[in-house]
Amino acid sequence: MLKVKSTSIQPDGKFKVTYKGDSITDTYATGHFFLDASKYEDLTFNDLNKLAYTKIKEDFKNKTFNITTTNEESDGRFNISFNAKGENSSYISGNFVIQENTYSNTAFSQLREMAYTKLIEDFKR
Q1: CA–CA distance from 31 to each of 6, 16, 74, 109, 115 (Å)?
Q2: In this structure, is the dihedral angle defined by the CA atoms of residues 114, 66, 57 and 41, taken in order, positive or negative?
Q3: Is the dihedral of CA 88, 124, 4, 29 positive or negative?
Q4: Measured between alpha carbons, how far is 73 from 105 in angstroms, rounded to an integer?
């Protein structure tokens, strides 16, 4: 589940919203997005939590994810770390875990696509 961890007003008057999330499938994400003050003023934290997912879905849809590291875990699964810059200066980083068989048969370009797909599937509300 994604949860907003902080909000702060920026020099340009926009609000920076920072979120984190852990899924039951071992996907982790942290990131931020920006909102105009007029939109921010009327939102509850529950609204912001839901908006974090929507912003991931929209802001990173056609963006290239960077795969920063791949590590084999003690249980034989592989931990894939990533980051990406999205629309409107949004940013996300995190990691997901896949089985060895999937890792062995997946091209690096497919890992980039998998990062977005895992975020959308694993944090769906």
Answers
A1: 11, 10, 27, 22, 14
A2: positive
A3: negative
A4: 17
Please report, as a single letter, which amino acid is at residue 15.
Answer: F
* CA separation, residue 83 to residues 63, 64, 88, 96 (Å): 10, 9, 16, 11
Instruction: Please tell me the distance from the alpha carbon of residue 48 to that of residue 45, in angstroms, as a whole number.
Output: 5
Q: Which residue's entry shows tokens 């980083």?
A: 93
How crowded is residue 123: how many other Cβ atoms within 10 Å of its Cβ?
A: 20
pLDDT digits (tens, 9 = 90+) for 92-124: 999 999 999 999 999 999 999 999 999 999 999
Give the pTM. 0.93
CA R_g for the chain: 15
Going by C-beta distance under 8 Å and a sequence separation of 6 or more, which residues neighbour residue 121?
none
- Please state, in angstroms and rounded to a whole number, the distance separating the CA atoms of residues 1 and 10: 26
Q: Which amino acid is at 57?
A: K
From residue 34, alpha-carbon distances to 5, 42, 76, 124 in Å are: 14, 15, 38, 21
